[in-house]
Amino acid sequence: xxxxxxxxxxxxxxxxxxxxxxxxxxxxxxxxxxxxxxxxxxxxxxxxxxxxxxxxxxxxxxxxxxxxxxxxxxxxxxxxxxxxxxxxxxxxxxxxxxxxxxxxxxxxxxxxxxxxxxxxxxxxxxxxxxxxxxxxxxxxxxxxxxxxxxxxxxxxxxxxxxxxxxxxxxxxxxxxxxxxxxxxxxxxxxxxxxxxxxxxxxxxxxxxxxxxxxxxxxxxxxxxxxxxxxxxxxxxxxxxxxxxxxxxxxxxxxxxxxxxxxxxxxxxxxxxxxxxxxxxxxxxxxxxxxxxxxxxxxxxxxxxxxxxxxxxxxxxxxxxxxxxxxxxxxx
Length: 331
Hints:
The protein has about 325 residues and is of the alpha+beta class. The protein has nine helices and eleven strands. The longest helix is centred in the N-terminal third of the chain and has 21 residues, at about 40-60.
């Protein structure tokens, strides 16, 4: 189903559980091998089909294991003035544990806190962050697409935009590192392809690819953060990386599954931080849950002017460019 390039959620939802499908396929292969004791044509067709499925799924998820090639280099020498740490957390609007969120922020102590699915209750419940995070962009909403952006570092020329849907905001801002170097952060949370949200992935894909174009045109270093409602290994995320020129620090390090916090077998990497090639990685980790359906993700990166000559971005071919243009033109 996921191989069919159709925007309806019934097709796109199968992009998500590829790790789960891999595990289930292994179990199926073992069960067929053990219980199907007639070595006839049906047996070999089943074994062949499951094996091909396993190989394909392994090909898709292998880059996100510790055995895959790292897309982002680990920084060797710490340069605190050139570094920035970010906590990304979809808090789940109907979760009331604002104190748990504050405790997690206190433990992680990031330079920037980006809270998603935040309404007026969450704005009020996290207002004490303003003491430690004097720069903030607050866009609370009651529709599960509110955003609260708190920063210790100076913010400049920020704006709140509604790229595709009138009720779904995104945040775009310059951030001044301690060294004085300016970078760009785009904070996004597009709608997922799901019943009750959007029956198609059209709006999500369109927003991500428009942000990819914006990131590609930026003259400053770029970080894109948020709950993208898409998994790291999906065709759309790969297309986003090709069109934006950004890198995924997850590759070669692990899944860092952020959703669903309450169901261990149904977990996917939905919360992301993609960075331009002039950053290296200090740290990436999943933080503790505080009652949300998402785990927070923490990332720390370091700007190095020569890093882009050491790291290789993915490149779009003519077919990718055509597909991206078609997706952006859809209504």
